[in-house]
Amino acid sequence: MDKSDVKLLFGRRVRELRKNRGWSQEEFALQVDLDRSYVGGVERGERNISLENICLIAETLQVPPAKLFERWTDSES
Description:
The protein is mostly helical. It has helices at 3-20, 25-32, 36-43, 51-61. The protein starts with a helix and ends in a 16-residue tail after the last helix.
């Protein structure tokens, strides 16, 4: 798995969990206190997100950070 795969899979998982909460990208960005364009970049796999922001996202989604790394299978690629 190369770096872009990791970022893409992570972004897909964040998007999935955000949508499960019924939040738009803008609502989520406001909740997590990050710029909407940054959140969009994370969800598209364009950002190499920091550990601090991973923890902020997990806290906002009310899940442990490890949950953001679940369901990474080849079928999602």
